[in-house]
Amino acid sequence: MTAQTATRKKRRIGWGQIFVNVALILLVLAWTIPTIGLLVSSFRTRFDIQTSGWWTVFPHREWTTVLEFQPGAEVDRDGIMTFEGASGTFEAFRAGMTSPDGDKRIIWIGNKRIGRVVVQEQQWTRGNHDFTTQNYQEVLGGRTYTLQQPDGSTVTVQGTNFVGAFLNSLIVTVPATVIPILIAAFAAYGFAWMKFPGRKVLFIMVVAMLVVPLQIALVPILKDYVTLNLNGTFLGVWLAHTGFGLPLATYLLFNYISTIPRDILESAFIDGASHFTIFTRLILPLSVPALASFAIFQFLWVWNDYLIALIFIGSKPDVQVLTQRIAEMVGSRGNDWHLLTAGAFVSMVLPLIVFFSLQRFFVRGLMAGSVKG
């Protein structure tokens, strides 16, 4: 390979790295900016959300009134008028006109007879920092609040109690994450290291369950739940999420457990360890990356689930989960963006904590079984 060829290859690699980095930065911004906007909006007042965008909390340029006057009787309101160097009709000034130098905006406010002209200039402002925790108090407290409007009047509103729904989501999500992980870990160990008739056929059936759509199983399961009196209970939701999550969990953990060196297990067998001892003392500690990786997927899936909770739990207020309560609030208080943003961010807090707590295992878990050595 000549020096010129090596230089070209390095240049191609350099441009490829730049392209990947730029694409990743754009992707991160595309996901992060809406989250930042949601967080900022959740701390803004109702009036600020309705009158300005969330980005106005940062320093920016905005039109500021610098002059305001009422045209005299000599101004021909039906013809061409000139203010601050800009000429136009009443309709043009009513819509807003820009001065010839582009630094000013002239707007006619009111009717032709007693209207006034407002001259505005773009000036830098430090941003609107009128933050409040009132939105979270209304969402989490569920009490009645009296709010003062910008015009001085007061209005009484009823808060939305998210505490009960948050606890219900926690009650549903934690067992629905732990149970399938434990069952799938036992199954993956059996498929990977235990010899029994029909092992390959059973494993193929488990993998085939990954392609079964969730929706086709809802009605039959619901009929069985009604017969067994499990409909509307947390146990029914735990069993449903366990059944739907087991195929992926078993496949993911099998790929990881099967790559554990055989010498470790053979040494344990020689020392007299049973399968259960090997599983609890060796397999589980060594499989933490895969377990944490699936825990993230399962936790986020169950926490954000709405369909299964709606079908198997129902709409009773005392058993509603967070997604049901947010959907209910969207239907009843769709114009209260200050409450919707606060409620949405409340639902995001725990999944973010779980993800950032387990992210160091995430990549290792996703790579489970991809490399053998």
Largest sheet: 4 strands, antiparallel
Helix count equals 14
- Topology, number of strands: 8
Distance between the termini: 31 Å
Record the strand order, biggest sheet.
1-6-5-4
CATH H-level name of the largest domain... which superfamily?
MetI-like
Shape: elongated
Q: Which percent band covers the strand fraction?
A: 5-15%
Structural class computed from helices and strand pairing: alpha+beta
- Please estimate the helix content: 55-70%
Give me the CATH architecture of the largest domain, please.
Answer: Orthogonal Bundle
The succession of helices and strands, N to C, reads HHEEEHEEEHEEHHHHHHHHHH
Mean pLDDT: 81
Taken together, the total number of domains comes to 3
What is the subunit arrangement here?
A: single chain
